[in-house]
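hey so i finally got around to running the thing on that chain from the lab meeting. sorry it took forever, my laptop kept dying and i had to restart like 3 times. anyway pasting the input first so we r on the same page abt which one it is
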Amino acid sequence: MRPLCRRYLVQAGEADGGLVAKPLGAFVQAVGGRSAAPGGGSVSAAAAALGAALGCMVGLMSYGKRQFEELDPIMRKLIPPFHQAMDELVAMVDADSRAFSSYMVRSHWWQTSCGEVGAFPAGRGLALLCPSILRNRRMAAMQQGLKTAVRVPCALAEKVSGLWPALKDLAHHCNLACKSDIQVGAKMLEAAVFGSYFNVMINLKDIKDEKFKLAVSRGRVYALDMMSQKISGLLEEAKQGSALVLALLEKRVA
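ok and heres what got predicted. didnt touch it at all, straight out
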């Protein structure tokens, strides 16, 4: 399964040559560089993808073996959600980095544009408009970047939320030789939701656009203050889900 996981990691980033197309060492170096992106959001997505990958691995290590033959029907149901989530979460590594980079580029571009308009004699008329028009445009662009910076980690937390039922079932039935792998997977998923929570909260407070007073999540409508409650609920769910998985595994005897 490990070669298969690697193949999916490469495929997810080949199209745009993004972060996930890099070797692991290069990704770590990029995170450790003197740049705000990739940062905590991309690391959270990578952690979530690895947690899902460990769930997928544990399922496959409990499937198709004579001593666990009775588990085959269960594992057929449990493996696909982890496999699908693994692929989708990998894509979020680049999605988060692009969201933050877009916000920074828009902020810098409008600042630069305002200065350049006033720098040319022929643009004096536009220069007079710069303080009002360009400031509003810059604010709108920054707000759009902030919206995306909130949506991506929120989507990540929701994706992880859908894995807890399968992970609990996996902990109850899996091959105990993989006990440590599923324990690590549970904590990786929990850590990823912690990261999502922090990233949502730090950006949510700066959103002022009235058109973003409502946010759509899982087909339901949430006001901005309710979105903070939503991500807080997902974090609490992750803490409880991880603790329950670990407790289930501790109760099992090989």
